Each structure stands twice: as structure tokens, then as C-alpha cells.
Amino acid sequence: MTRSIDAAPAATPGTALPIRQIFLTGASGYVGRNLIRHFTARRIAVVALVRSPAAAALVTDLGATPIMGTLPDADLVAGMAGCDALIHAAADTDHGFGSPSQHRINEAGTRAVFAAAAKANIRAAVHLSTESVLADGRPLVRVTENHPLPRRPAGAYSASKAKAERIALSANSPEMRVVAVRPRAVWGRDDTTALPQLLAAQQSGQLAWISGGTYLTSTTHIANLCHGVELALIKGRGGAVYFLSDGDDLPFRDYVTGMLASQGLTAPDKTVPRPLLRLIAGISDLLHGLSGGRIKGPVTLQTYAASAVEITLDISKARNELGYAPVITRAEGLAEMASAKR
Description:
By secondary structure, this protein is an alpha/beta fold. It has 12 helices and 15 strands.
């Protein structure tokens, strides 16, 4: 039987969460929408920061209370009134050449959110980070949370998210426990981010395997991410970082092929040599910098780092400290995606 991501598993079955109301940023995005579903199913009220009337209507339909505002300028302290927990999921995830807006949202936005949370007497907070904070274009094999941040991040996204993570964790205190979680390749039903891009690339004929696509990757189903966030809110050690994944690393090619098959599409056969793509990415970034942003090549090192080399995560820390275990299998997740398409 396929489980639905709407039916959120409890961290401690049969008992209520020690949380009454959550303030959520990034509420209308893919992760945010599913966090609303997850916690409202657990009878936890969610106050959702949104930027537009359309987003407000969307989160209202999901059962959250919308608060209008734009990071970092929103009146966050007033919006957090009555909340005892925070989940900061808002981010500019663009893997291109970066922009002032990306730094503003990811860095200044995070600083504003956690400063407001401290003033609003938030007791527990989870910052949605990413494994990309470690990306520099080289493989990351079974990495743990002790792996150092690179001196030269792969791109603007990695750099800004690493700064955001540090900003968030610096807000940890005896009064407010702050935890960061790092998922990798979030996927599943209702995906409005990675899956549409994948489908567009396949249908345009631009999708190709990088050196055959046989290198391994970790992934994180959206239901597993929501479950991990819940556990981090309840059990996470203040100032700690936790990797979250599906626990079953697989070849990148198999991951993408499964996603396409769930939508009734066949994966391509063509391949691109990794050294060639790495060269193109490096030249693209160089020309972009030398031209003051006027020249934009076909692929960035940030995109290369996310999809062209092995990235596998060791989730032992989350298993041991949070009691984390995936709540949905890959087969169940793919079946759910296929069912949703019909």
C-alpha cells in the first residue's frame, strides 16, 4: 500500500507534540507547502510568511494562517506572536551565477528571521540548510556533519547558504534552541522545483548523462524531510547540524530515470564526458566574472557540483541523536508520483 505524504507520521506515536504553533518562512514553496500539510495533520497551528495574495490563498487552503511580508523587511516579531517554534525554509535556490537578491534573501533574510525569533521568545527553531554548503565541485563521499566548509564554494548558492547556516546557528542560545538540517535532492509528489526542470530538459532533448550517470547520489523524499524536521524541532541538540536522506544511495542515473518513468517518460541515452562539462562550467564562471556579469555561459560550476559528481551523506548522526529513520521508501514515493499524474 502506498502511503500519502499528507498523512504525517508522528515522532512519538500516540502523543501530542510539545509545540502549539509554528512560524514558517518559505511557506508557499515546495518544502513549505508540505511542512504545512505535515504539521497541520498533527494538529499544530502554522503561521505562514508569504509574499503575495496568491501565496496567501494557497497556504490558507492548506490550513495555515498567512502573514504578508518580504524578507528581510517583514514585521516578523509581530507575526511570530504566540508561536513557540520556527522553521526557516525560505531561500533563493537559483544555481546560476548569483545575484544581490540571492544574498539578500539567504543571508540578510536569515539574520532578520532569527533576530525576530529571539525577540518573540521562540523556544525552538530549525533552519533548512542543504548539503550544497559543502559543494566545491569535487565528490562528497559518505560525508558527515564534521566535513569542513570549503574555502572556495562551488557558486553563489553554496556560499550564501553556508553563510545563512552560520547565521542561524549563531542564534542558538539557552533561550532558543537552533538546529540546522541538510537534505539532499528533495523529491516527491507535488514537486514544483526540480521535477519541472527535469521534465523540460528531457522534452527539449537537452538532458544527457554526465559520464554515464553511474556515480552515486543521496536523495531525500519530501515526507522523510518533513519527518526529520519534526524530530529536529523536538529532539535536536542546540547548535547541531543533521544530514537527512532516504538512506539508500543509488546511481544518479537510476534516480533521474525513476523520476521520469513516474511521469510516463523514457530517459535518454546520450552522454557528456565529465571533464568536458567541468571545463565548460569553469570557463562560464570565469567569463561571467571577467565581464562583470554580461557573459553567461551554458552551465555554472554550481550546477555541475550538484549533479555531476558523487554526493552521498552519512545520516548516522540523525539516526542516533534524533531517532530518525525514513518513513517512506523510494518505491512508495515513485508510486505516489505516478498515481498523482493519473
